[in-house]
Amino acid sequence: MAQLPPMKCNSFKPFTGTGSLKGFAEIEVTTAFGPLLFRDVKLVQQEGQNAFIAPPQKEYQNREGKKVYTALVEFPKEWRDHMCIIVTAKRDGIDL
């Protein structure tokens, strides 16, 4: 398994509505070319289940006029797992 690039959660904005969406994060990933910022990364947690990260999405209407969402970026599983750890820590007031 390849080593993960350095990542940090710059901010977390809680979502106060009902449902499984818990908030939005900005995640910074350090690369050889400079930092990559991913904004509006969702933290989702259904009752009784582990939290997970969902990438930013774009909303559009399909040909039938129905709202459809598509991810703007896809993260490798190892990135998603680590992002979930740093985002939930930030949500809980811990900076990793």
Give an account of the 3D structure.
- This protein is an alpha+beta fold and 96 residues long.
- 16% of the residues lie in helices and 45% in strands.
- The chain has one helix and six strands; from the N terminus they run ββββββα.
- The protein has one helix at residues 77-91, and strands at residues 7-14, 21-31, 34-44, 52-54, 57-61, 67-71.
- A hairpin with a 7-residue loop joins strand 3 (34-44) and strand 4.
- The longest helix has 15 residues, at 77-91.
- The chain is globular and about 45 Å long.
In quaternary terms, these chains amount to single chain
Q: Return the average pLDDT rounded to an integer.
A: 94
Give the class from helix and strand content and strand pairing: alpha+beta
Helical fraction: 10-25%
Number of helix segments?
1
The largest sheet, given as strand count, sense and whether it forms a barrel, is: 4 strands, antiparallel
Beta content: 35-45%
Low-confidence stretches: none
**SSE topology string:** EEEEEEH
State the shape. Answer: globular
User: What is Rg?
Assistant: 14 Å
Q: What characteristics describe this protein?
A:
alpha+beta; globular; 96 residues; two-stranded antiparallel sheet; 16% helix; four-stranded antiparallel beta sheet; single chain; 45% strand
